[in-house]
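Hi support team,

I'm opening this ticket because the web form for multi-chain structure prediction keeps timing out on my end. I have pasted the exact lines I submitted so you can reproduce it. The total is 744 residues across two entries, so I didn't expect it to be a heavy job. Is there a limit I'm missing, or should I split the entries? Thanks in advance, R.K.
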Amino acid sequence: MSTHITVDPVTRIEGHLRIDVEVDHGVVTKAWSSGQMFRGIERILQGRDPRDAWLFTQRFCGVCTTVHAIASVRAVENALHLEIPKNAEYIRNLIVIAHALHDHIVHFYQLSALDWVDVVSALKADPAKTNALATSLSDWPGNSTPQFQAVKDRLAGFVARGQLGIFTNGYWGHSAMKLAPEVNLLAVSHYLQALDYQRKANQVVAILGGKTPNIQNLAVGGVANAINLDNDATLNMTKLYQVKELLDEMKAFIEQVYFVDVCAVAGMYPDWLKVGAGVTNYLSVPDLPLDSTGRNFDFPGGTIFNGDLSHVTPITTFGDPYFQKNVSESIAHSWYDGDWQRHPYEEDTVPKYSDYNADGKYSWIKAPRFDGHVMQVGPLAQVLVGFAQGHEPTKRWAVKTLATAGKIAGATLTPAVLHSTLGRHAARMIRCCVLSELAAKHWTLLAENIGRGDTTIFNEPVFPKGEQQGFGFHEAPRGTLSHWIVIENGTIKNYQAVVPSTWNAGPRDAKNQPGPYEASLVGNPVADTEKPLEVIRTIHSFDPCIACAIHTLDVDGHEVSRVRAL
Amino acid sequence: MPTTYVLSLGNVLMSDDGLGPAVLRAFEAQYVVGPDVEVIDLGTPGLDLSPWLADADRVILIDTVKAELPPGSLRLYKKEHLLSRAPGVRVSPHDPGVKETLLALDFAGRAPRDIELIGVVPAVTTMGLDLTPEVAAAIPAAVHAVVAALERAGIAVRARPEPLAVDPWWSTDVKIPA
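Hello R.K., no limit was hit. The queue was backed up. Here is the completed structure from your submission:
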């Protein structure tokens, strides 16, 4: 006897992501992932000036603003074979890093830690014992007995007034919650402190990008940050040192708090290092270019198939034909007209909605494939591709993570445990540790280049007559993002964005191969079909970001999401 | 550091959902505020709203709202109203929005001292760059509501002698009435 569960958030005006699972004897046997809202925003770009495209793509998603801006200018630059100045690469890289650190910290503390941390249980914690535990794990100055006592008192005050506020609809007391009260209190304390680091990352983006969340400083051909060390209105040493100080503070938080918290959760939920692997084909693209040629990068990219870390095919340049030739999208199970599988240059976006049919069409999301294979993208893909290629900082932080979590678990952990729900969280944290080291490096590269007297920021794009095609990729916080553009006589003829959450959340294809979300849920335990916490855990581990679109505020909303067990 | 924030929310690519940014443009074209007020369009930031709200003295939000009223209707909401509903199960980073950010900051003891929302009921929120006429017609009243909120708080708002041109970058067709 199987039970069908639908997790269907009915937020804003239209829903975003709907997950359906069949549960048999407490285990998920089948799963479907459905995007519940039509995007197709690419159509807005047709006929426009390619130099303006990034302003529009930045609005695809209010959370992933900068990433769509970066991918867009790279696509146009690729179509024009336009190199950009070193200063522009470094400034873009620092924005990319600050945005990613911000995004990952928000994801862990604000969006997913509470899947693992039982806030109510923290009321039973002994603050002195919490401090003893905290100081055994880290020398973070924000840990102290009075700090933990204050957080506990604050929580107790909320509960006494019958107000759980932000925590109201959590799955508190769920049998899958396993952390000791002291660990829960530690995590709640860090949840509160993480708010400050969101702000610090934002400040970096605002200083370099002009504004945040929607940056103003990009241009096809470079950036618009005038550099003059003697002028207060331009990028100067004072501003550069502000950026450095903020990045250093974030690095300390990441290494002393985020690293420890993820290792603790992984070490205390070892079962979740065995669940949720799903698709073990991985795709990531190289990023953080080191010069203006698009051939040297600080983060490697490539593909891995069937979890085999001994074989990796590298992706090495911005124009790499291995990437360019192999990407396609299938609409066999998506609400579009037809059932084709096409290359992004050849795609169209013609909606054709029919009812939700698990055996037929059931999602607005297309199903991207790489040489016909389903691929998982995201920090885990990036970390594994880096690890398999011997990328030094990735390997060092991955080994340190496995050793620290293994010590807490009382077990020896190998890289194979990263193919899992908690492996995705661990990889996101590993990526942050590596990125914050690279932030310091790219800051130095920028400062030294300016110090040599190079203040060039922009190379003028020239649009020839006729047709050009180009693609730009970016290893975004949620994974491989690519924008594909066809330009005709200086205007946009076609534009497609193949976004990370499409790779991961996409539906089945013509061969009925399930997408990564769908595959990862199969085998998940579900203890209580009314409260499918385990399903949420695995989906959250991908850091879903689906809607990219709409925001009407439902002030009077009586019910903003619902779980149905049928 | 600014202590007052005028923030617009909404997606300019989704028709009437772009009301907030359009009101912000119209406000900036007609009025000047001092350095203690930051005026910025945030788009659809989800929980990324919190850096603007944390520890702020006063926040004025402009957004579309879902309500059983005709499109173009203007509604004002106070902090108590915004905090009075519980958040739902979180799935994507978009799901938490204003309410969730406020509740999270409230727990942290860092919610803005005062916050109000100027809301307009949309007609169409599918892909498109234009506001519907009935929603565009609400812009002057919404701008007036922003000015009134600032003045109630004793914050200086100066009308420009010559209003600037309002030309939203996202559309040459969008007409923002003064």
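A quick check on our side: The first helix of chain A runs from residue 53 to 57. Let us know if the file doesn't open in your viewer.
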